[in-house]
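A student in our group prepared the protein record below, which I am reviewing. Here is the record exactly as it was handed to me.
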Amino acid sequence: MSMHPIKKVYCRAFQTVFHLAIPLLPYRRPEILTGTDLLPGLFREKGVRRVLLVTDASIRGLGITAHTEELLAREGIQCTVYDRTVANPTTDNVEEARALYLTNGCQAIIGFGGGSSIDCAKAVGARVAKPRQSLAKMKGILKVHRRLPLLIAVPTTAGTGSETTLAAVITDSGTRHKYPINDFPLIPHYAVLDPEVTRQLPRHITATTGLDALTHAVEAYIGRSTTRDTRRDAEEAVRLIFANLETACADGGNMEARANMLQAAFLAGSAFTKSYVGYVHAVAHSLGGQYNVPHGLANAVLLPNVLAFYGEAAYQPLHRLAVVAGVAAANDSPRAGAERFIQAIRGMERRLDIPTTIPEIRREDVPRLARYADKEANPLYPVPVLLDAGELERFYYEVMEERNEPGTDPTYFGYAAGLLFQRRHAARGKARSGASAPADSHSGQ
């Protein structure tokens, strides 16, 4: 069973309209600053005397924000710090930070940290701009449409690309549902690409955030809404990641590799903010919302499986990326090039100690999580192959810990296909007989 033909037509028509509209929409790139030392001058120029700095406890605990806080204090700029942002920022985080912004009369917001802190800062700006509207009412596309306060992003990870995107991903504190907010005012006004603030990033986080950037670039590149600019940005991001990520992980003090990874993340973010992502992200967001799985880790685990599933629909673009990455030749067949690219990703993840499973996944949660992923991705994401919620379940089952068995081939349906078949067969039997369908023999484990 596959997506209903009418829904497929609707999805592709929706995506085509957005693709054709790209040249008409107010995309912009943040202005790049090369160091946090430039912030006081920027604030003086803008007449800003009080700022809110949004970060998390670990970043602040490591002293990474200390230089900026001291610098602003010396320049007479009051800096209020909110450092309670969690790995998948919640609506509670946003409201707490917004209260600090209003209480202290702040005029600008700095998102300082990984994508979670920057997304939280964006959402705070949206709530300041629209005080009478909840974040839930802003989820989806083009529902903010108000100018935010001056917003500066200081990424301490080279991966999320949040410093250049129009998206913020927030988790509802009550339901644990994770949803994106997409609108042009969320694009930061300035991005500070300073490799020094990434120097203390642990190896594992350097790896998973770097693979997050790779996922952005690849999903933007293989979708159906690319442009000349987004293809160029994605190719350069992939080249930089393959050339620098393992170096940055092996030698965290290598500032050239760190700087190149920041540039890669920025370019990948620029690519996907116009050309969107795909099912890797939709599934990863549902896992982050339900289990608090770090987004970069979820993307890394899922990426090779989803790419392998797309098959022929993605062979040509993946072959081009394989050539850019230096893992295939231009005269290889598209299939051979695509397979080499996927294997190169698996090899890099193996060397970086990325797991192949996500043990938090519970079987009974999968249908609901797949519905969340379906709702996020369709009709917006211009993926190579359209899938409905039932078909998306396979990606959860593929990375459940119990499937990590010798000889298991993650490019085939395996257990997931068998389970889907059982469900559909039972449903058909119920329809014919009028009796209750038998319970799934594996449910509840």
